Amino acid sequence: MVDAALRTEAAGYSPAQKWLHWLHAAMILTLIPVGIAMSGADPSPTVNAMYELHKSFGLTVFVLAVLRVAFRVAHGAPAYPADMPEMQRRAAHAVHWLLYVLIVVTPVLGFVGTSMCCKPVNLFWTVPVPFGFEGAEATVKIVFVLHKIAAISLAVLVIGHIGAALFHAVVRRDGIFQRMLPGR
Ligand code: HEM
Ligand code: HEM
After folding, report:
1. Which pTM was predicted?
2. What are the pLDDT digits (tens) for 133-161?
3. Whose Cα sits closest to atom 39 in ligand 1?
4. 155 is in which domain, residue-wise?
5. Domain with 155 in it: what CATH number?
6. SS3 string of the chain?
């Protein structure tokens, strides 16, 4: 039943799916360089602010990702063009679902690590986030290494994904790029 839901074909992406896609793209393309910059920097008020923003936007990515997966399962996605080779369809399908997994797992790992080492976290300096995880320093290190691995895997997949999107837009010109644009 789940497998059938994952394959549901729709006439096009819903406006919510499109807006969430581009919101995620903007946030994730910022979170990755900010994450790398802040974790290699000496403490300062600016670096502290980077941490607060990273955690707040990271948690926002998580909430929107759960929403987005729900939309995807409920609404489905448009079919690929009939002339798209089977291998490319399979690759696109696999990359898309891996992206969905990583936009959920990456923030969860950041959340768990932060919960163990550095509570409390106040969402955008205001709403306190309940953190329930405990862990020794060695565990915290492992969780943040996993957070880094997940984030780097996400970055690598996103680079491939952008390459594929541009390939469809510029070389194949098959409408795949346009169908993710709001208003189309
Ligand atoms: C999709 C969402 C997220 C992405 C793409 C992301 C990405 C990254 C990246 C690339 C780093 C640098 C890793 C390194 O060089 O060591 C990092 C570090 C970090 N992230 Fe995230 N992150 C996300 C969500 C979160 C969330 C939700 C939290 C906490 C609530 C969080 C907390 C942290 C912390 C505390 C560090 C520093 C770890 C350290 O210094 O070892 N991140 N993140
Ligand atoms: C940076 C974070 C990004 C993430 C996490 C992401 C994730 C995804 C996911 C999961 C899908 C599949 C939607 C579905 O079929 O359910 C998708 C589709 C798509 N993405 Fe992204 N994306 C990102 C950035 C981008 C960027 C920067 C571009 C453009 C340069 C782009 C262009 C597209 C296009 C054109 C589609 C539609 C593909 C199709 O209909 O088969 N994405 N994206």
Report:
1. 0.94
2. 888 999 999 999 999 999 999 999 999 99
3. 39
4. 2-180
5. 1.20.950.20
6. CHHHHHCCEECCCCHHHHHHHHHHHHHHHHHHHHHHHHHCCCCCHHHHHHHHHHHHHHHHHHHHHHHHHHHHHHHCEECCCCCCCHHHHHHHHHHHHHHHHHHHHHHHHHHHHHHHHCCCEEECCCEEECCCCCCCHHHHHHHHHHHHHHHHHHHHHHHHHHHHHHHHHHHHCCCCCHHHCCCC
